[in-house]
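Technical annex, item 7. During the second reporting period the consortium partners agreed on a shared format for inverse folding records so that results from different sites could be compared directly. Each record opens with the tokenized structure and is followed by the designed sequence. A conforming record, contributed by the partner at site C, is shown below for reference.
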């Protein structure tokens, strides 16, 4: 099968949502950090597959490990246990100095988790902070409590001094 850049571009233009501009090259194979296009030109892959090929292309050890695992079990959902997930989490925890690891399926999921972790940390750290550093938060909370106990009509809220800043 001979690949011509124009044919590949035409097919992708017709069937792939065009959300970003691509460079006019079609890669057909890789080895380590090197890539080759359909015309046999060699390139250095300095993008690591935008995160998915950080170990290089066609590494014999990685290829063998993926092939061996694929012949046994390719994938299970995080809704079930898998013997290697706990082992990997333990290793990551030991290497990072953190207690636990979080596995996710996408960058979006990772960002969402990061925001949730940051929010939880903020709430947890705030509850452990010395009372002097929380005094402003307490007075704000007390002010909010007083405002909630007042009448809820628009006129009453406008005239309530405690709700103004």
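Designed sequence (site C submission):
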């Amino acid at each position: 099968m001979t690949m011509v850049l124009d044919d590949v571009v035409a097919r992708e233009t017709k069937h792939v949502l065009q959300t970003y501009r691509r460079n006019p090259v079609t890669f057909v194979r890789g080895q380590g950090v090197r890539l080759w296009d359909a015309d046999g030109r060699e390139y250095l892959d300095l993008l690591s597959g935008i995160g998915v090929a950080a170990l290089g292309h066609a590494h014999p050890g990685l290829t063998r490990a993926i092939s061996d695992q694929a012949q046994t079990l390719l994938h299970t959902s995080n809704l079930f246990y898998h013997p290697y997930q706990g082992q990997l989490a333990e290793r990551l925890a030991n290497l990072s100095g953190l207690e636990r690891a979080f596995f996710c399926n996408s960058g979006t999921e990772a960002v969402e988790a990061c925001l949730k972790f940051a929010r939880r940390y903020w709430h947890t750290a705030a509850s452990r902070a010395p009372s002097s550093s929380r005094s402003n938060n307490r007075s704000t909370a007390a002010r909010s409590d007083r405002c909630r106990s007042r009448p809820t009509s628009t006129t009453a809220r406008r005239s309530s001094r405690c709700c103004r800043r």
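Residues 84-127 form one domain. The chain is about 50% helix and 5% strand. All partners now use this format for quarterly exchanges.
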